[in-house]
Structure formats: C-alpha cells, structure tokens
Amino acid sequence: MTRIALIRHGSTAWNKEGRMQGSTDIPLDDEGILQAQKLGLRLSDEQWDLVYSSHLSRARQTGEIIAAQLGITDFFQDERLREVSGGKTEGTSEEERILKWGPDWRQLELGMETEAAVCDRGLAFIDDLLEAHARKHILIVSHGSFIRHLLRKLAPTLTITEHLKNTSVTRFTIKDNLWDCELYNCTKHLV
Q1: Of the four listed, 75, 81, 89, 156, which is most buried by Cβ atoms within 10 Å?
Q2: Which terms does the UniProt entry file under GO BP (predicted)?
C-alpha cells in the first residue's frame, strides 16, 4: 500500500492581499514559515519516506522545513507540481480583475492554463511517482488550485466544498489502483 499526503504550501503576502499567484514565484511570509514548522511537528509522529515539492519557492520552502523536521533527506522538486498559471491575471486582486476585464473575466482568454493541461501534467507526475516509489509514504507539497484539479481526477466522488487552507493535509492510501481519501483539508496543527 502506498500513502500520499497532498499539502498546500504555507501562507504568503499575496495570499493575504488576495492576489492571484499562479506560477509567479512568491516566498512564504513569516506566518507561512511558522505554519510549515507546525505541520512538520504534527507529522513527526507519522512515518514518511520522502518529500516532493513544486519548484516554486513557497512550496519548496514548506517542503524543506517539513523534511528537515522529519529528518527526510530524500527531497525532490518537480516542475509539474507548480501552480496553475494565471496568465495575465497573476499579481492582480479580484477587484482589479473586475475593473480591468469585467465581472466575467474568467470567461475571457487571458492566457490562463487550462484544466486539461493541469490534469495532464499532474496525472503524468502521479503515474511516474507511483511507478518509482510503490509502497512508500510520500509527502507532496504543491498549490491550492493545482491540488484541487488533481483531486477531481484522483477522487471524483470527494466533495470539495471549500478552498484548501495553507498547509492543509489531504491524505490517501492507494491499493490496487484505488484511491481512498483518509483525510481532507486538515489543518489541526494550526489550532
């Protein structure tokens, strides 16, 4: 049995400002670093073998903090785990997007990455991961929109009712190609 935990990175200044981050490389803020430390402490009671993260600094920093706290030296970055590209919307707030493109801005061609493209790279990563690390316990640190798209494919019956919180954990066991969600969007380490 393989176990995978999908973790959203810690908070950033742009999260607090409500700015679209996309593939723009924004670092963790002080709260994000603290969130990652708290998550590392929480996970220290569990058995994890390796960490993969997006190459973007907010996810990479989160993964590095967790790996260091768990004593995990098998730490890998993979660009396929990057956040969904927001195209021209990156760096803007919802108010700015509405002012610039109107309330239906999501319907416009603004260079945003398609759901199909996100799922293609995400599922290719998962296939490669499961082939290379069968029966391992793997932490994957990535981004909210990317994880949400991936969850729709990996666990289509999972009800996704809220945005993934910073440093939230969504954990699966995989046996015989069946994905069983044990935990969803959990941030008990932040309480």
Answers
A1: 81
A2: negative regulation of glycolytic process; regulation of pentose-phosphate shunt
Residue of 64, 83, 90, 113 marked catalytic: 83
- Of how many residues is the chain composed? 191
Provide the annotated binding site.
Answer: 8-15, 58
Q: What is the CATH number of the domain that holds 35?
A: 3.40.50.1240
Number of H helices, E strands in the chain: 6, 6
Beta-carbon contacts of residue 109 (< 8 Å; ≥ 6 apart): none
Marked catalytic residue, from 9, 64, 90, 149: 9
* Residue 76 domain boundaries: 2-190
E-assigned strands of the chain?
2-8, 50-53, 75-77, 137-142, 169-175, 178-186
CA pair distance 45, 32, nearest whole angstrom: 21
Pick out the residues of the known binding site for substrate: 8-15, 58
> Does residue 31 have an active-site annotation?
no
| Mean pLDDT in consecutive groups of 10 residues from the start of the chain, 191 residues | 97 96 97 98 97 98 98 98 97 96 95 96 97 97 97 90 95 91 96 90
